[in-house]
Amino acid sequence: MGFTVLDPSFEEDAAGFTLPQRPSSLAGATVGIISNGKQNTRPYFDHLERLLRDEWGVAEVVRRTKSNYSAPAEAELIDEAAGWAAMFAGVGD
User: Fold this and answer.
1) For labelling alongside 92, which of 3, 29, 47, 71 has CA 20 to 30 A away?
2) Among 59, 65, 50, 51, which residue's Cα sits nearest to residue 31?
3) Average pLDDT for 8-21
């Protein structure tokens, strides 16, 4: 009986990656919230949404939930998030 050894190293070269510029303000912006879908994310994100709207002047808050809490976000969700001025992600247990 044998066993398989997995190599956890990242296969792609990240040298060409650049971070996007941060927005100077969130006033009037669309901001996304991505949840992992666990129960305790709801109260946290409810509070965050209130802060975004009331204190930072965000025009729209888009809330999405990943289909699998332990996997990366789906490609469609990443594509949608590219149109947001900022995005928050979180976990809850």
Assistant:
1) 29
2) 59
3) 74
